[in-house]
Amino acid sequence: MSLPTKLDTYPLARGVIDSVRLNVCHFIWKKYFPWVVHPSVKLDGRPNLRIADVGCGTGIWLLEAAEEYPNADGLDGLDIALHQAPPKHLLPRNVQFKHLDLHQEIPAEFVGQYDLVHARFLLGLVRNNDPVPLLQNLLKLLKPGGYLQWNEVDWASDLYIGLEENGITQEESGLHKMRAWGKPFLGEVTWPKKMEEIVKAQGLEDVQLARKTKNDLPRQYSMFWTEALVAAGIDMTGKLPEGPMRDQAAQLVEEASLDAKKGIAWAGDHMVVVGRKPL
């Protein structure tokens, strides 16, 4: 049975439930990395402070950044689709959302405008296992001396918590089978483990890496993170046409959901890379 080459530009849905999933992921991520802006990023005293969140989704990270920098001149959520973001009347005065396609040439209005550019979960946007074209566009957004903060997970890793406690092997795990089935949709994804080197190769300075591995992920939150992965599987299944492939996906999602309830959790590396554009 062959998989479709692409479901659409973005492989997951963008409805209300999907927004809830993204917001849950944000707060679980903060249990792994308990800050919004990396502690090495120094923005105090910068005139005309501007911050961008690229691939902003619901805008949840940007809204928390607005709480930390209430006097910033502007905090912009940038995404190819903005209907998951809150409407204008619910936003702080200095927060707005704007259309940006990271695969296209960066419009002049955004070039060199931001002191901090944040990006998270760009896996679904990277083509041919090469994040450099997206990274180069992210760097175009920065002012000289501006910071990039980029968060990702090592999707290629097959590491799990709770297999031994449940007396099963990795191959018997429904969660593992669901992830293995879904990998062809993303294609080869080996670059996240090399994020630090990739960022350094683009000339950023003071590059720092924060990483959580299987041995230091907080286990008490691992079930909730895994449930968010299962929700993503439900999203993807819902976009498949009716037929045997969709039925197979639904069965695998159900098995993965049962694993999550038993405390079986995926434990791939979670990483944040920070670097500063030269002056």
Question: How would you describe this protein?
Answer:
- The protein has 279 residues and is α/β, with parallel strands linked by helices.
- It is 34% helix and 19% strand.
- It has one domain: 3-Layer(aba) Sandwich (Rossmann fold).
- The protein is built from 8 helices and 9 strands.
- The chain has a 7-stranded mixed β-sheet, sandwiched between helices. Strands 6-8 form a two-stranded antiparallel sheet.
- It is globular.
- The N and C termini lie far apart (53 Å).
- It comes from Cladosporium halotolerans.
- InterPro entries: SAM-dependent_MTases_sf.
Q: Could you list some keywords that capture this structure?
A:
disordered N terminus; SAM-dependent_MTases_sf; alpha/beta; seven-stranded mixed beta sheet; two-stranded antiparallel sheet; 279 residues; S-adenosyl-L-methionine-dependent methyltransferase; Rossmann fold
Give a short synopsis of this structure.
With 279 residues, the protein is an alpha/beta fold. It has one domain: Rossmann fold, CATH 3.40.50.150.
SSE blueprint:
Blueprint: H1 16-32, E1 50-54, H2 60-68, E2 74-79, E3 95-99, E4 114-120, H3 132-140, E5 142-153, E6 160-161, H4 163-166, H5 174-186, H6 195-201, E7 205-212, H7 222-238, H8 244-261, E8 265-266, E9 270-276
Parallel strand pairs: 1-2, 1-4, 2-3, 4-5
Antiparallel strand pairs: 5-9, 6-8, 7-9
Helix pairs in contact: 1-7, 5-8, 7-8
* Class from helix and strand fractions: alpha/beta
CATH topology: Rossmann fold
Q: In the residues, how many domains can be counted? A: 1
**So what's the overall shape?**
globular
Q: How widely separated are the two ends?
A: 53 Å
Q: Which blocks of ≥5 consecutive residues have pLDDT under 50?
A: 1-13
Percent helix, as a range, is: 25-40%
> What spatial order of strands do you see in the largest sheet?
3-2-1-4-5-9-7
Q: What oligomeric state do the depicted chains represent?
A: single chain
Number of strands: 9
Using the coordinates above, name the CATH class. Alpha Beta
Mean pLDDT over all positions: 90
Order of helices and strands: HEHEEEHEEHHHEHHEE
Number of helices: 8
The major sheet is characterized as: 7 strands, mixed
Q: What is the CATH homologous superfamily assignment?
A: Vaccinia Virus protein VP39
Portion in beta strands: 15-25%
Provide the gyration radius in Å. 19 Å
- CATH architecture identity: 3-Layer(aba) Sandwich
